[in-house]
Design a protein that fits this description.
single chain, alpha/beta, seven-stranded mixed beta sheet, 9 strands, 20% strand
């Protein structure tokens, strides 16, 4: 049944320059959060979701290049959930919720307390637009194109992990506090 499910694309090829600039001594995805690397938290949530997944960690020029490469590597998938590797608190059930929402739309965007987050889900019909992505910009152009056709669904979620990315040492501290509050 897994081949009928969208593939989670874990983007892990960014340079993490803001993290280093904020005082980080290692790459942000390798920074420890509750004793475990940030990326490992993200991967654990993806594995627990039961969805198929792909890690894109080659050194690409920008997020658009990374998304296009990941989609190209999984082009047979019935859809994709684009998940930056620096969202260590995302919940497995949120991944499943966004995946299920793709049955009713071309693009599914999680929203937590009014803020759009990740993963953003894309149905197979978005394949050409995703493959055409390049440079620093992510998939906002694909989302805009689908929104013009009324094919974007905003999905309310009770998951602060969808909007908690680790771009700075301060973000890592905040994630640590949020994780401790969950336990």
């Amino acid at each position: 049944m897994r081949h009928h499910l969208p593939t989670v694309l874990i983007l892990a090829s960014g340079r993490g320059e803001r993290f280093a600039a904020s005082g980080g001594s290692v790459h942000k995805l390798q920074a420890l959060l509750a004793g475990k690397p940030v990326l490992q938290h993200t991967l654990d949530a993806v594995r627990a979701s039961g969805l198929p997944w792909h890690v894109e960690d080659a050194g690409h020029g920008g997020m658009g290049d990374s998304i296009a490469a990941a989609v190209r590597a999984t082009a047979e998938a019935p859809g994709w959930l684009v998940l930056p590797g620096d969202l260590p608190l995302v919940l497995p059930e949120t991944l499943r919720t966004i995946a299920a929402a793709l049955a009713d739309c071309a693009v599914a965007v999680p929203v937590h307390q009014g803020e759009r987050g990740h993963p953003v889900g894309f149905a197979a019909e978005c394949l050409p637009g995703l493959l055409a992505l390049a440079g620093e910009q992510g998939a906002a152009s694909v989302v805009r194109q689908q929104a013009q056709q009324g094919r974007v669904l905003l999905v309310e979620v009770e998951d602060v992990g969808t909007v908690t990315d680790v771009d700075t040492v301060q973000d890592l501290d905040r994630a640590e506090r949020l994780l401790a509050a969950r336990r």
